[in-house]
UniProtKB/TrEMBL annotation:
GO terms for biological process: molting cycle, collagen and cuticulin-based cuticle. GO terms for cellular component: plasma membrane. This is SSD domain-containing protein. Residues 281-310, 1176-1242 are annotated as: Disordered. Pfam families: Sterol-sensing. It is a multi-pass membrane protein. It comes from Caenorhabditis briggsae. It comes from the Eukaryota. It is found in: Membrane. Residues 1222-1232 have a biased composition (Low complexity). InterPro entries: HMGCR/SNAP/NPC1-like_SSD, SSD. The chain crosses the membrane at residues 498-516, 523-547, 567-587, 608-627, 639-660, 1017-1037, 1044-1065, 1071-1094, 1115-1134, 1140-1167. Its main location: membrane. Keywords: Glycoprotein, Membrane, Transmembrane, Transmembrane helix.
Length: 1242
């Protein structure tokens, strides 16, 4: 079976060239399975609801115009026609045609005793048992139209006269009364307990006793409550019409009554089994044509009282002859026959005319004779029922939406919903493999495999949605909204692919921006100092690192989804380019003040900042793994991997690229024109600028004989640098400006806290899908009109003792049912498997009690006894076998007549509970399907045998079973979360009472995460905050600096959360990831400034100016690059990407820039950390240390060893430096590197 999954994967992924090999593997590994017999009956593969289709195919009908009431004749007929169309949808595969009837979920036929007609009736019922559809038109006779069977069964006139309750001609659910047929046949043949089943299921007359949507419908049966007598109306019409002049008379179209041809399909099969060869010969010679099913009357059967010698032998021929003697009909007089013929010919035309001219009916009909249209609201109040009225109840809220009531009755509605249940692949495989009707003659049954059944199901589902998407009524305004599991999967697969056009455009924009910011012109072309080539190379490097990261993530088995393919490439690009800008900005300074070891100086100056921000970003996304959402874990994992690859590439490869560009500049070659020489705009400076912050970097600038002017860029007022020096820094030194910034920040924090308090939980499923897609339209209609969800209460575990915990289980079920969210039909919960088992056993107890009183059983062994030629009923014979069975024992002594299977407290006898379960599962298997119990392990097979008295095998103790419930009023996430909390509390209570259980269903699958979302978010933020604080404290060796950074990050997170709440962005796992990322990304805008301030010298204002001149421009460009990285998200097909990523990331960048470049500098001027170095002279500039050659010469001159040399050096008063109470690791490491280098001043 493991090969089947490979087949499906290969086919769905389009790798068809592997199919032949895999099919050969399957043929070797999977042999043709045996037929599914009663002895090894397999439990049903029940449809599983996953919220997005699954085993349920759904279609919603919404108004075709504003204000339309769908509780009308036109809307209901439109829905009925749609159901008929869906039933006729076909797909062609494996040399056969497949329809919904082949794959739908339908219960198996009830069991028959092994009599002469058992096989025939099984074949007939297998053909006619309908699919289980949940639809609002089941309230009416019209609900039978789509049930089929298609094509209709035509049993021929002989069978119709043999069984008078069968309609002549075509047999469908539109004219079939199954209960009448079973009762009539049951008088002739022993059909077993099927009659008992029909009574318990409430099948009765099926659809024939339900009102017609339109009483003028031609096929509306006479048994319908609002049947319209067309023949009587035709008589009145003719009288009225003939009284008019010839010019005013209405002309009706005459219908030609077609004669049926002799059918030779299932009718011939039945006749072949029932009648002998001579009988069939006479039938062929004397066969008569029958009229159309909608217009014919029952014909007189031929020689019903004469016994044919070739009839099969029956146990009691007297009963058989008596049954046949009651099937004759009286002759009709000629006048009545003429009227009937006239009605057949013109009745249909009259009904059509009446439908087209409803205002003229009063001209020939009295008020009492007018067609009786049902009150659609009254009929549909409380919901509808399927063909089994007692076991198939469709709640009102499941099938009708947008309801308005008056006095408790429906008066209008805006939507109708129908649900089609589809079987699992194995059930479809078993059904087709063992089909006795040979409905697919072109199929190679020997080679038919379960994976083929799965392909048939998915292909039909795709065809179902495709046809409804293109439905003619959906052209102007979408009226029909279908959904299948394949539609969701196909759409997500399509839109989860990388949109390479958008990605390329985004990267081109980033290249243009990077080149623009790094370009310097000299004359007609780029100057020597221009870094456009490096900028382009850096963007390409980040691109390649992202590709490598995605490949590594794929290698690790991390799955792609819509969030990863739509967001990760742009987010990785934006965050990776930040560090590139920082390296390029400092590189532009270093090459103008340093003439040796430039790359080393650059990495010493910038490497700390790059490492600090990148590590914190990686930790932030890793912390997102705390959220227990697989898709978001994939997103966080992939983003963290890509950021790690960005860090590696930028720290190891990009410096090498800078080194190559440095050679170009030293040779005086122009940027992007290496064959053209230029002139440097400014020679290398011999000064030590104050904004070269690292002490070891200063050691590289050896050999300065005099202090020269610091390197200054040419920055006009309209550039970022010009704005910084001319406007921004002076303003930031102003106390009033500082006060305004602090007050504004405090106000923003207050509003942020308020916004977070008012934020609500939730994520609209429609937002997860692209807006213009039909599945999104379906979900919007579902969220608007239907608040209904199914659920299961699951009993699972080795410690469950169901036979002795029946009352506890019933108490548990009633406790769940007491919830206001549970739907009850007439105050009662939906039946479940144990209640169905109990009802079945009670009916058997009654039958057994009656036959025991009549003396029809041997009390010692339970064998049946004939009394006056009558045997016990099938129900009592099964009951006797069950009563005598307990565990592995079979003993009737002292049990028959004394032990009941269900006591007066409705408790099933625990001693034989699992024996009874086996009997119910096999005899009443259709009820088991309907109960959706899904037993594990499955009870063993068993079949009643009158001749052999032996124990009914006991089923193994159930480890898994489930009870269905319907829930309503789940209109939004808060309501659903409240329901989950309530149901979970009940489940936990009974789990503590030794009844292991849990709830299951779509609501729990999608919304249970919200129970712990706030806690998980808090824990994730706490983890990332602690990690960020630890990393910054270690790398900076300054806990106070780390504390200030954390304060700014917390402020940014609060402001972002408040913005999301005020803008209506709900709290959900996606927005939670954004908040978690805000902690890491917030460090991007603060750590650079903090580090520059920490390593600057001079007064507070001097340090402020130095750090801003050093970091403002790269942080600003990094923010713009991050924005450019996420701006392409606005073109995403997914609304949730735009809403939850583009909007929030854009606001995060804006808040990060404001807090990092405005709020943090102000706070640093008030409570900032002390500098790493404090010159004893109070200067803001340190002189460079003497060259190592000079130091060595001085040391050699002193002699006396190292200790003496050091003592003598201390006596020299050269530029004494007072170190702060703490040593920076960067300073200590720099000093070691400085001592190892030898430089010669020039």
């Amino acid at each position: 079976m493991e090969y089947l999954g490979r087949v499906k994967h290969e086919r769905e992924s389009g790798h068809l060239h592997h199919m032949h090999k895999i099919k050969r593997d399957i043929e070797k590994a999977v042999k043709a399975p045996p037929a599914v017999k009663a002895e090894v009956r397999r439990g049903p593969e029940l449809p599983k609801e996953n919220g997005l289709g699954g085993g349920f195919q759904v279609v919603i009908q919404t108004p075709s115009y504003d204000g339309e009431n769908v509780l009308s004749k036109e809307a209901l007929q439109k829905h009925t026609k749609l159901m008929q169309e869906i039933a006729s949808y076909e797909v062609h595969m494996f040399n056969e045609t497949w329809t919904l009837a082949d794959i739908c979920f339908k219960p198996p036929g009830p069991s028959f005793n092994s009599g002469p007609l058992a096989g025939i009736m099984s074949k007939l019922l297998d053909k006619i048992i309908p699919c289980i559809w949940i639809t609002p038109v089941d309230c009416y006779w019209d609900g039978a139209k789509a049930l089929g069977p298609n094509p209709p069964l035509n049993l021929g006139p002989e069978v119709a006269s043999f069984i008078s309750s069968l309609p002549p001609g075509n047999v469908t659910w539109k004219n079939l009364n199954p209960t009448s047929v079973i009762k009539e046949v049951g008088q002739l043949f022993d059909l077993g307990p099927i009659g008992n089943f029909f009574e318990r299921a409430g099948i009765d007359g099926a659809y024939l006793d339900r009102p017609c949507i339109d009483p003028l419908e031609e096929e509306c049966p006479k048994s319908a409550p609002n049947y319209f007598d067309r023949c009587a109306a035709l008589t009145k019409f003719n009288e009225w019409n003939l009284a008019k002049s010839m010019s005013e008379q209405v002309t009706l179209e005459r219908k030609i009554i077609k004669k049926e041809e002799e059918t030779k399909d299932i009718a011939e099969s039945i006749l072949s089994d029932i009648f002998g060869k001579k009988r069939r010969k006479r039938q062929a010679e004397a066969s008569e044509d029958s009229e159309d099913v909608t217009t014919t009357t029952t014909k007189k059967p031929a020689s019903g009282s004469k016994k044919d010698d070739d009839y099969y032998a029956y146990e009691d021929d007297a009963d058989y002859i008596n049954g046949l003697g009651n099937t004759t009909t009286p002759k009709k007089d000629a006048e009545k026959e003429a009227k009937n013929t006239l009605c057949l010919e013109y009745g249909s035309s009259l009904l059509k005319w009446m439908q087209e001219n409803p205002t003229r009916l009063g001209e020939f009909l009295t008020k009492e004779e007018m067609p009786k249209y049902p009150n659609y609201g009254d009929v549909m109040t409380g919901g509808c029922k399927g063909f089994g009225k007692k076991i198939m109840e469709w709640p009102e809220d499941l099938i009708i939406g947008g309801i308005e009531r008056e006095n408790g009755k429906l008066v209008s509605a805006e939507a109708l919903q129908s649900v089609f249940l589809v079987s699992g692949p194995y059930d479809v495989f078993a059904r087709i493999k063992n089909d006795k009707t040979d409905s697919h003659p072109g199929l190679n049954r020997h080679g038919f495999q379960p994976w083929m059944a799965g392909e048939i199901i998915t292909t039909w589902q795709r065809n179902f949605t495709k046809k409804l998407y293109r439905h003619e009524l959906n052209q102007e305004r979408r009226v029909f909204h279908p959904l299948a599991s394949t539609s969701i999967a196909d759409m997500l697969e399509e839109f989860s692919q990388f949109n390479y056009i958008i990605i390329v455009i985004g990267y081109i924009l980033m290249v243009i921006y990077a080149a623009f910011t790094q370009g310097r012109f000299q004359g007609w072309w780029l100057a020597v100092q221009s870094n456009v080539a490096l900028a382009i190379a850096g963007v390409m490097l980040v691109t390649f690192s992202s590709i490598c990261g995605l490949g590594f993530a794929t290698h690790l088995g991390i799955n792609f989804n819509a969030a990863t393919t739509q967001v990760v490439p742009f987010l990785s690009l934006g965050l990776g380019i930040d560090d590139m800008f920082l390296l390029l900005h400092n590189y532009d300074e270093i090459i103008n003040i340093c003439h040796k070891n430039e790359i080393g100086v650059l990495l010493k100056e910038t490497g700390m900042s790059v490492m600090l921000t990148s590590i914190n970003n990686i930790l932030a996304f890793i912390s997102g793994y705390v959220l227990p959402i697989p898709a978001l874990r994939s997103f966080c994992s992939q983003t963290a991997i890509l950021l790690a690859f960005n860090l590696i590439f930028l720290m190891f490869i990009f410096p090498a690229m800078i080194g190559i560009d440095l050679r170009r500049q030293r040779k005086g070659k122009r940027d992007l024109a290496y064959c053209s020489r230029g002139t440097p705009q400014m020679p290398a400076s011999q000064s030590v600028p104050s904004n070269v912050s690292n002490m070891s970097s200063r050691a590289e600038l050896a050999g300065y004989d005099k202090q020269a002017a610091e390197f200054k860029r040419h920055e006009p007022w309209y550039t970022v640098g010009g704005f910084l020096n001319n406007i921004y820094i002076p303003a930031l030194k102003n106390n009033l400006c500082k006060a305004v910034i602090l007050i504004g920040t405090a106000t923003a924090v207050v509003f942020g806290l308020y916004g977070m308090y008012t934020s609500t939980l939730g994520l609209e499923l429609a937002d997860v899908l692209p807006e213009h897609t039909p599945p999104a339209a379906f979900l919007r209609a579902r969220e608007k009109y239907f608040s209904f969800y199914p659920m299961f209460a699951v009993l699972k575990g080795n410690d469950i003792d169901i036979p002795n915990q029946q009352q506890l289980i019933e108490e548990y079920r009633q406790q769940l049912g007491a919830s206001k969210f549970m739907i009850k039909a007439e105050g009662k919960l939906q039946p479940y498997w144990m209640s169905m088992l109990r009802v079945w056993l009670q009916s058997l107890d009654k039958a057994l009690e009656k036959d025991l009183a009549a003396g029809k059983f041997d009390l010692t062994n339970g064998n049946p006894i004939k009394v006056n030629g009558e045997k016990p009923t099938p129900e009592s014979m099964i009951a006797a076998r069950l009563v005598c069975s307990f565990g592995t024992n079979y003993d009737c002594s002292g049990r028959l007549g004394k032990i009941k299977m269900v006591d007066q407290n409705d408790v099933i006898n625990p001693e034989g509970f699992y024996n009874y379960l086996t009997g119910w599962f096999n005899v009443d298997n259709m009820m088991y399907y309907v109960s959706q119990a899904s037993f594990y392990p499955t009870p063993p097979g068993w079949e009643y045998n009158e001749k052999t008295a032996k124990v009914v095998p006991a089923a193994e103790p159930l480890l898994y079973s489930q009870m269905p419930f319907y829930q309503n009023d789940l209109v939004d996430t808060p309501a659903i979360v409240k329901m989950i909390e309530e149901i979970r509390a009940i489940c936990e209570e009974y789990t503590e009472r030794s009844l292991p259980n849990y709830p299951s269903g779509i609501a729990f699958t999608f919304w249970e995460q919200y129970l712990s979302l706030r806690f998980n978010l808090f824990m994730a933020i706490l983890i990332i905050a602690a990690a960020v604080f630890t990393v910054i404290s270690i790398l900076m060796f300054n806990p106070w600096a780390a504390t200030l950074i954390m304060c700014i990050v917390v402020i940014t997170t609060i402001e972002l959360g408040g913005f999301m709440g005020l803008m209506g962005i709900k709290m959900n796992p996606i927005s939670a990831v954004t908040l978690i990322c805000a902690v890491g990304i917030g460090v991007e805008f603060t750590a650079h400034v903090e580090l520059a301030f920490l390593t600057s010298l001079g007064t507070i204002d001097q340090r402020l100016e130095s750090c801003l001149q050093h970091m403002f421009v790269p942080v600003y460009h990094g923010a713009i690059s991050t924005f450019l990285g996420v701006v392409m998200l606005v073109f995403s097909e997914f609304d949730f990407v735009v809403k939850y990523f583009f909007y929030t990331m854009t606001v995060l960048v804006a808040l990060g820039v404001f807090n990092g470049l405005c709020v943090l500098p102000v706070i640093l001027t008030l409570v900032g950390p002390e500098p790493e170095l404090i010159p004893s002279s109070g200067d803001s500039v340190l002189p460079p240390p003497p060259p190592l050659r000079q130091q060595n010469a001085e040391k050699d001159g002193y002699g006396g060893g190292v200790e003496g040399g050091m003592r003598k050096r201390k006596e020299k008063k050269q530029a004494e430096v007072e170190m702060s109470a703490r040593d920076s690791p960067s300073t200590s490491s720099a000093s070691h590197s400085s001592d190892d280098e030898t430089t010669t001043p020039k």
